[in-house]
Structure formats: structure tokens, C-alpha cells
Queue: 4 jobs
Job 1
Amino acid sequence: MRICPQELYAPYAKEENLKRIGRAFVLGGAGGVVFASLFLHPYGAVKAAKSLKPLLAGADVNPIVSALVERSCQNCHSEKTEWPWYSYVAPISWMVEGDVAQARSRMNLSHWDEYTIEKQQELLGRIGAAIRSRQMPPDRYTLMHPSTKLSPIERDQLYQWTHAERSRLKSVMSTPEGQKPRARIHSTAARSRRAIHPGLLCCLTQVNARLFSTNYKKFVP
């Protein structure tokens, strides 16, 4: 019985075809991932938003608290996000961008000075509650970024700062309006008074005392 060469190599040819199809699928999938990573952003241009402003601009922040905020809050709640390599690979990039977009919409530390005093007080209350209840930073975030985890002492430092800053803002709101302008008016009047000759000032004072005496019936012109 004579065997045809085509029949002899047929199994090998089928195996080679399957390998080619597999490589095509892999390359096609990789190409799709690259395309999706570069051009598909369901939450908008989240990475394009960048700011050079300091965090918590306008707030009274000490260096210790500032360092804690930069370490544990900056990546999600500001426009100074340091994007890890996996945030550029779809579909993981969509999850990361979605988390950052949601966090910024709730509180953006890069725009702190643009919030009203009432809004700042509200956000400070939320920060303090989230820190004390250990909701922030989230466990799934600290699991991948261990350096962002806060110790009990650091949590207390952040909480005490939020309380102190809310008290400061409350005192600012309770300051009577127009107090400073009145002080400027008084100082201007004092300077004008000093500019008058002492002798003339004395005469004017005596005349005013006679004109505006409370016992006007005894006034003699």
C-alpha cells in the first residue's frame, strides 16, 4: 500500500494552522487592548486634568498634615494623580479612571479655594468622619499601595486638623462685616484731626460745645 505524502504531513499541517489562528487571535486581542487603552475613556479625559496649585489652597495646614494628605489622599482627590502603569491598560484603566473621576467629583483638593466656606466646613466634617471610621483611604487601595495606609496616630492628627480648621472657618464667618472699614475711617479721622492747628482745634471744640449743649435753653449766642 502506497501512502501519499500529503496524507503523511496532513496532521502536522492542521496543527500549524491552529497555531497560526491562535497567534492571530493573540495579536488581535493585544491590538484591541492597545486601541481601547489609547482611545476609549468611558469617564472622559480624566488623565488630562492637571493642576500646579497646592493642595488645600487657602487652608491653615501644617507640614505634617500636608504630607499625610499628599501621601494618602492626593492620588484620588486631586489633579496631581500619579498614574501607575496598569492604569494605562484597558479594562483596568477604565476602573482606575472611574474611581478617580468619582473621588474628584466628591472632593477635589486642587480646587479647595474655589469652594465656599460652608462647603469647606461640610467637606472637613466628611473627611474627619471618614478618617475616624477608617473608610478612607479604602482598604482595596491601601492593599495595592501599602505606603498610603495611615497609622492610628496619623489618623488622629488628620482628625484633629479637620476639627481645628472647621473651628477656624467658623470664627471667620462670625467676624462682623465692616469692622475693618470702620477702623480705617477712625484712623483717617484721627489723622485729619492731628492735621488741624492745636489752637484752632481748641476754638472749634469750645464752639461745638456751646452749639450742641444738652441744655440748649441756657445757650447764649
Job 2
Amino acid sequence: MHYEIHSTEQDVVRDLNSITPPASVDMSDVFFEGAILTGDQIQQEIEEGNIEIVGFDPNRLNENSYNVTLSPTILTYNLLATEDFVMDIKNPPDLVSATISEQYGYILHPEKLYLGSTNEIIHSDVYVPILTGRSSFGRLGLNIHQTGNFGDLGYRGTWTLQIRSAFPTKIYPNIAIAQIYFIRPYGKITKLYSGKYQNSDQPTPSRIYSEIERIRKSNINYTSEESR
């Protein structure tokens, strides 16, 4: 097949529209499986029960996402309670909780991790939710997640935000701090999330220690079985 390079965007669009796909290609796979939902489609899926957003406000729908808001509770890790100011992932972390003032706000400091959460509870067994920051906050040097922006099918709860700021920055509760969008997965859905963060309703710290403990116990049991 020969492709020509065109000099104008209009030429490219015209030629793309003229392409006839092979009969073996199911266009529903191309354009619907793995597609990002538009704002209108998000609302339709909510109405049909395929997406749940507790506290849904249609005014926060965007072209292909939905704005989520910051809850008043914010957590920080308390290194003063650790040995030599070192966090050990094998141990449950010690935390300091604060409430973000509606009137005075809360100051974020650089080089410090804050755990916030959305006010909204979000759930879908059909669509994969993905959380991302708003560009307005990114332009202020504010990141709302380090990792953990990728949701699981079946997860229900608020989303914990892993917040860092490039500068001392004052934030306020209930601001539309992030946006969530939904993707239709490709393939048969055979498993739904039921893990350690299910039904979170506030900022939730790492529970990696529970995985380490489970592995340790399974290794002990395995060794014990071998020794018999």
C-alpha cells in the first residue's frame, strides 16, 4: 500500500474519511473498545447504572472527563515516629491528620508528600476509571498523583490523591482539583477488584505492609510443609 504525504491538514482529513476498512475489521472494535467516554456518554452511563459517582453534579462534566473535588481531610506521614527518620515499608505508617480550613486554607510545602482524597465515591464494573490532574493546577506546580492514577474494574470508594507541590501553595477544600475519565476495556471482564483499598472513604495510606506480611506468612507455611 502506498501513502502520500500531504501538505495540508484538510487533505489528510479528506483522505482518512475516504478509507474503506477491510471486511475483516470490525469497526466497533476500532472505535468503541478502548475508547474514552465523552462527557455526554459519562452522564448516560451514570443514568443507566454502568458508572456510579456519588455526589454527581452535571455541571462538572467536561468534554471527555468529570471534575472531582478535594475532601477537607489531609494526611502526612510522621517521620518523627520512625527510627532514624526512615520509613520502613514492613510497618504500618504513623500519620498526622489535618482538616483544610474553608476560610484559611492549608499550606502545602515542597519536598513533602500529602495524602488527600476526592469527596466523590466512584465505581464501575464496566469502565476503567483513570484519574489525572487539571492543567490549571499543573501550571502552579501542583501534582495530584505520583502513581496510582489507574483504577480497577469493580473498585468502589473515594480516590486517594498523592499530592506534591513545587512551591509553598495554599489550597482549599472542595475545589475541583482533578478529573477522572473512563475507558471501555478491550476483552471479556472476568475479574473485579476486591483488594485492600476497597470501600475507602477518606485518604488512605499505603497498606503495602499487609502484602509483605501475607507473603511472609505464606513462606513460613510453605517452609513448614516442606519440613514435614
Job 3
Amino acid sequence: MKRFLLPLVAVLALPVAAIEQPLLFGRESNITDTAEMLTTPEIAEVKNAEFYYKQGYKKSKSGNHQGAIEDFNKAVELNPNYGEAYYNRGVSKARLVNYLEAEADFSKAIELNPKFFQAYYNRGTMKEKIGNYQGAIPDFSKAIELNPKLFQAYYNRGVSKLRLVNYLEAEADFSKAIELNPNFFQAYYNRGVARYNLGNYRGAIVDSNKALSINPDSEEAYLNRGNAKDTLGNYRGAIADYNKALKINPDSEEAYSNRGIAKENLGDMKGACADWRKASSVGDKNAASWVENQC
């Protein structure tokens, strides 16, 4: 009986304002320079807005996003043209999983500053979060146009293309992200996913190897490399990878189910049934039916 491996583990997407890239978290305000062009009462309002902005920025950096939002609200109330305040309010809303309102804040920041590449990047990330992959791609493309070195934008554009089953273009975006950041674990991992789906199983294994050299504790990379090996008929190699995945996560239904398939292909039905029983016990309904019918 022909069985199908459980699918490759879900693609890895970078979060909004990637923590490892502080530039995408927030920007210091240039509002004091603008104040010199305003009248005396306007200067007072702008300086008050800057005060609230700085307070909000400090709170967001410390993880107090609700408090930060309240301060950014006051900043934009006092100065409705304060693009950085809208932007960082959007970041805090995103951290609180309020993606739609965050998207609106990033849109306002873009309206006030059409060259605000971080806002395009984060708006694209919000669109990804709510499943609007087609809408996310133009935002990542605009961020790249404004900052061609922004490897995160290439990467997340690749994620959206991968979700839309555009594997070839996704592979190209992940390759560009790797060119800009050669130690980018997620990019190697997801390029391996794209290559697997393009039928380039050996290429998928190469990418998984590189991903694991960067992050040896990635259950997902072992699973995906195991799947590629299994597809190429290297069942013992696949079993070795599933074993490593299970050392990291002893309750991985994918590892038990797919290791059982590999064992079945080697004629070890006793071992296959043992794995499928374990997979069934952690929620795999397909494995449960295999146990019922063959074990």
C-alpha cells in the first residue's frame, strides 16, 4: 500500500519588527528639527508629543506595549503628522496580536512618509499574519526597492510566495536572503521546503544540512531532511533523521508516523506498527487507521 509522508513542517516566517534587527523595531524621532519651523504654540505641542513618544518608546522596549500604545495615542493626538509614533504604535499593537489595527498604523506612517521602508516591511508582515499573502508581496517589494539590502523583506516575500505555491520565485527570494545573510537559518530551511516541492530532493537535503549546521536543535529540519531522504529511497537515512527529531521532541506525531512508513518500506512491520501506535496516541488519525487495518 502506498502511503504519503506527513507534509513538510510549516514554513518559518519572521515576526514583525524582527527582534534580532533593532532597526525594524523603532526609530528615534527627528521632530526637534521640525519644531524650528513652527510657531511658538505649535512648538510646545510638538515637544509634548515628543515627550509622550519617548515615553512610549521606552515602554515598548521594556515590553509594556499597552502602556506604550497609550503614550503613542497622546503623541499623535498632539501631533497628527508624527509618523514614527504611528509606526511604533503599530509595532506595539502587533506585539499584542492586534494585526488589523497595526496594519492601519503602518499605513498611516507610510502616508506621512512614503519612503518609510520599515513601515512597508511591517505592513507586509501584518498582511502575512492575517493570511493576505498576495497583498503582502507588494509591501515587501516596496521595502526592497527602498532598501535593497533588507534581507528580511526578501525572506518574508519568499514566505508569502511559498504560501501561494509559487515555489520557484520563493526559492529565488530565499536565495537572495541567504546571499545577504549567509547564516540565515530560516532561509536555508524554507528554501529546502521550496526545493522539496519543486522535486529537487537532493537540493532540499543540502539546505537542511546547512540549516542544521546553524541550528543543530531544529526538529523541523531533521523531519524535512528525513522526508527528502525517504522520497529518494534512503529509508535508513530517513529513520536516522526521524530518530534525531524524536530526541528533540519525543511527542512528534510526524516523526513517529513517517518513521513507521520508512520501516514498512524496509519490511519491518513490527517496528512500523509500534511507531504508528505511538503516532496515533499523540493524535495522528491516519496512523490509527493503519494500525487498525494492518497491525
Job 4
Amino acid sequence: MSTLKTPFRYDFVGSFLRPQILKDSKKKLKNGEIQKDEYDKIVNEEITKLVAKQKKLGFHAITDGEFRRTFWHLDFMWGFEGVEHEDTGNGVKFDAELAKLDDTYLVGKIKAKAHPFVEYFKFLKQFEDENTVAKYTIPAPAQTFQQFIVPNNIEGTRKFYADNDELIKDIAEKNHIICYDVYTGFKWIADVIRKEGGEKFIGGGEESFGYMPGAFTRDKDGVSATSLMAEIAAWVKMQNKTLYSFLKEIYAKYGFSQERMIYIVRKGLSGAQEIKAMMEEFRHNTPKEINHSPVVLKKDYLSLEATNLQTGEKTHLNFETKSDVLQFFLADGSKISVRPSGTEPKIKFYFEGRAQMKDMNDYERAQQDANARIDAIIKDLKLQ
């Protein structure tokens, strides 16, 4: 049993080049020339050799070289119930070269089951001693989330998750991370911290530009957020990048999202009545589709009820207070939020349009597509 303290700042990721015998054995397994147990025996032997080499070189963290994996991230996802995969010859382009990846998609809700990575880690952990600690890497929850909302997966994902919030919650839960939905305003995030404790608080934000990276301010914290941004800027400069190019990388990896807000002014008593009538119209006569995309989910924070408009299933929204807010989630990933202003004679509409980027150079096209989608939604709703 190791007594070492982690992390080791000089550590390596843990993926090593596969020895030739491993490549040959994998090919034989695929061709039916050897059985799975024979292949597993060879893998175990090669991992044992690799661990011995790492110890000899003086590394304090030992890994299995990721010898059991086909892909660095997808194999972990395959270990959950509700996830299937298929080799279709598709992949992702890296510098004009196609990196082949199995299509990985949902066939049901994500649930935990006996995960093979647990047994893989147990095998590795037996080699620990007083100078070493076993290390196993898994993809972040955000990577898992992204896999199931890319354009070629989003339609299938919507059969099991009407909106992204529920998918995020399931992924977070499987990674022992708790997510809370609260109303806009940091007082609601602070309320959760007060009730649950701030020791394990990671971060919280709202749908505008507010962010709270720690539990010590209990409000939007521009100072800490600016410090984090300065650290990011320093890091990207060390990589010979810019903040703008790094932002494009993020969009290319996770998908592009564009937001916009518009409002309609209706003054006086008649205006207030008109705004109320507009909210009631959206609430009780929800369009079946908007901009040729089906409305799959409606969330009503006044009744605290979410309705799957495809199945008719209703679920309770776990909020302590009510608010006159409606949200509509479309099959194409678009989101519309509607609420009357609490201080002005206005009804406000918040739009989110999504688009996928092939690479960093696709940024302008994705931005145009997302904005065009929002324009079309506004036109279809006859708001302008």
C-alpha cells in the first residue's frame, strides 16, 4: 500500500506506445486466431513489464500505459449502461488526417453498472509499493456530455433526454458530482452553499456573464474571474496561442453556442395586461415546433412542472419558490426562455442557438449559422 501524496507535478499522462506483440495479438483477436482470455493474458504480461520499467526509471506514479484501451475517452463511456458503439469508419480530422473513432451514442438513459475500468485499476494497484502509487485516467464529465450532444448524436439523445440539463445531471451523478439548478441570481447559488456547505463547491454561473469560482464571496466575483482569466492568458501565451484562438479551440471541441436577448415594451395598465396575456398564450398554447424544429420540452417555473411534449410525461421542478418564467427546448438544440421584467414594462426573450464547428477555421461560419437560427426563431414567433 502506497503512502505517497499526490499529485506529482512532474508526472506523465500515462499513455505509452503499444509494444509490437500487443498490436499483433489484438489483430489476431479481431481475426479470431486467439481467444479473449489468451489476449488478456498477453495484455497483463505487457502491463507487468511496463510497470517494472516505470519503477526502474524512478517514477512515483505507475500506469498500465492505457494498453487495454482502444480510444483514450470512448472506452470509459462504453462502460455505462445506455451507451452503445459501432465501428462505421467515421472519425475526426486532425490536421487533415482522419483519426478513426467508433460512433458512440445513447440507446437509453445513462446508468451505472459493473464498470471494467474498476477491475483494470485493481490489477494495476497490486503493483503499488511504498515508493509508488497507481494512476488511472478517465475523461472528464464534460467530455462525456459533449459526445452525446454533437450534431450526429443530438437527435438520438433527445429520445432519452429532452434537454441538456438532465443529461448533465446524469453524467455528473455517475462521476459523484452534484449539480443544482437555481434561478438566475447569485443569491440562489449562495443559498445552496449555505445549506450544503462550501467545502466541495467547484463553481457557479448564470446565463449572462457572471461567474463565482469559489465559495468565499457568495456573489458574482469579477476579481477572481479576472485572475483566472489572467492565468489562462499566461498559459495560452506559453503555448504560442491567443485567447481568441483558444476560444475557437473550445468551440471546435464542445460546439458553438450563440446567445441573444430581445425585449418588447408594453407601457401602462393595458401593456401589463398584454404582457400577461402573452405569457399565458406561450404557457397554455405552446407551439409544437419553432423554426421547423419540434419543441421537445417545456419548463414552467410558475407551476414548477416540466413537460416532455413528445411523450406527455410531466416531472416536478425541484425549486423552493415559483417564478413566472418559461423555457422551451428544441430538438435542434436551440433554447428559448421567456419572462416578464420585474422592474420595467417589458417581456424578455432569451435565445440560444447552437452550431457545430469542424475546426477552428469554421468559427465564422458557425457563428453565422447560429445567428441565422436565432433570427429564424424570432421571425417564426413574430416577435419582430
